[in-house]
Amino acid sequence: MEINYQKMLETIMDALNYATLVDENCRIIYMSRNYYEGVYGLSRDDIIGRHICDIVPDSRIPAILKNGRASLGEYYYFQNTRENTFANRFPLYVDGELKGLFAEAVIYSFDDVVHMNELVHALKRENRILKKELLNIQKHRHGLESIVGKSEALQNTKKLISKFANSNLSILITGETGTGKELYANAIHYMSNRCNMPYVKINCAAIPGELLESELFGYEKGAFTGASEKGKIGKFEYANGGTILLDEIGEMPLFL
Fold first, then answer.
1. What is the pLDDT of residues 152-176, one digit of tens each?
2. What is the per-residue DSSP string for 104-171?
């Protein structure tokens, strides 16, 4: 069965609120029925092929076509219907050439928009408070207080950490298994001015040598066979501004 794409386009357009499709010269290719009939009282024959500004004098479509960039969520007030809307306008490119534009206005109650805006701000405030509380809990749980002991050697180590935690120096922590090296690393991060930034832990001994480089530094898409098409961000880049812990760094292949 042959598909009537023109009829399909008209069905889609008529299902939208106030939708318009124009060519590169701002000539109307199609407009949703509730737009040309409901707002302007016109027929389809009255609008097809006309310049958009002949129908909508204050249309922003010519300006968007001129700069070639999409405009999303722009407030627009319909004088005819006295409706508050938000318009999305998308320039259409074919083989890199601008060939037209699609626009749709979404109708909202202005009171609803104000309420949503207030709700978003309230959620942002609550999120900031919760993040601050979580950070305080993490500082208490992973700070020096979590390292129990009264020996002189331990107390000297704590003083050393307090002295260098805020520096940007690379710090090497050595010690036998079970002496709490990771506890000290945690304390260094949560005592530093980087404590609200990412803290990334990597077990170098658990990652095969041939994969370690891509794990640490990431890769661009198609860099090697089997690479993700989207590429991958490296752990160093992800930890930027924060702290990265290279656990068992002594197990890393020497060439790395």
1. 988 888 888 888 888 888 999 998 8
2. EEEE--HHHHHHHHHHHHHHHHHHHHHHHHHHHHHHHHHSGGGS----HHHHHHHHHHHHHTTS----
